[in-house]
Sequence to fold (426 residues):
Amino acid sequence: MDNTMQNQKIDDFFDQLNPIKKVSLPKERKNIAIFFASINFKYFAGNLKYLFLEFVKKNYECYFLTTFQEIYNLLKSKGLPVIKYDPKDLSLEDFNTIISSKYMFLDHDFDFARVDKNLFFMLNDKVKFQLWHCIATKNTNENQIHIKDIKSNFNSLYSGRKSNDYILSLKNQEEITYKDNYFEPKVKFINSPPSKVDSLKEKHDEYELLNVDLDNYRLIKEKYKKKEFNIIYCPTYRPYDYTVDTIFNENKWFQHLDFELLDNFCLKNNINFFMNTHQSDTVHFCKYVEDLKFKKIKIIKEYSDIYPLLYFTNALITDYSSIYSDYIKLKKPIIFFRPDKKKFENEVGIYKDNILSCGQEVIQIQSLLDLILEIKVSKNDYLKKFNSQINEALSFFSLDNPVSNSSIVLRSLQNIIELKKIKHVK
Fold:
């Protein structure tokens, strides 16, 4: 079929799509799984990445669906099954694969406000498995959202989250957070551990290193082997920093950090400081620091997968980010740096049952520096103070499994859905 006829067939289908009413899609469905990066930046990370790689490893028919050429090229270069969605340039083969697939996996929100409308209706009829990318630590209940621009999109977010068929999450999420805030009884919960934790190890294969900042990966690994002290800072986003068009205000949380003080401290004490921002902050943060000349602070590449770097760190700094719940697997020190604690807890809200006290909380920057130095000098003494909490968290977050989390998830899925074996060409 020539391109003109192919494009016409796709156009004819798109013409049927009604943004108000769900259209009738082809009834024939194949046991194909689509892993959809449903967020609007260059994403190949999280539970979505590692479960996708497990599917490929076990030869199940699946495709990673992205809207970014860079991610498409990256996966294609390794022979992985990938589809790039572009409404102006979509092959008939890829089109048919998308509409005839039966299952969709995602770990971020899928709703009409965030997804191209044609693609939304092509995917909305799938059996949807929400993997979630985190443990719920921040409140996203409508009552806690005070920002007009964000609240205006809440109905779309709410309806999108209610449309999931299955939610793969730890039991505490089901009981404490998502079920109460978003979901109707029809949604089924599957108690399963996070796949992304499988990457917290010393050696990684070429697929696990896809979309990883390889320069910083090699650097942090080299420093770690030389017994140097590596620390990584992974803060969460601040919803009150946003406006509707995602342009930041002048007074942002990271503009309150004294980077000169921090950098000089690390230089004086021979500390390698790696910084990664939440994906919602990345572009603006990188722009803010692009002209700053750091000596010991390294900024991790935007939108990259940081999990393979974590093994080679000596400690983690975070705040209310769920990354702490994965990092516990390494049994290394965690610092909770919360300079805007009062504002965050009042305006955003937290789920206290999901924030375990397995590390010390600090508010002031000088207290943070003092604590970093304390850990560098005597890491074991610091860990002793939180030993029981760390062991409790390992069990609570299902991080003490003798086999890979991805294999546990896949085993659970095999009891629910029918998957088709295929030999992927790599």
Summary: Residues 3-16 form the longest helix (14 residues).
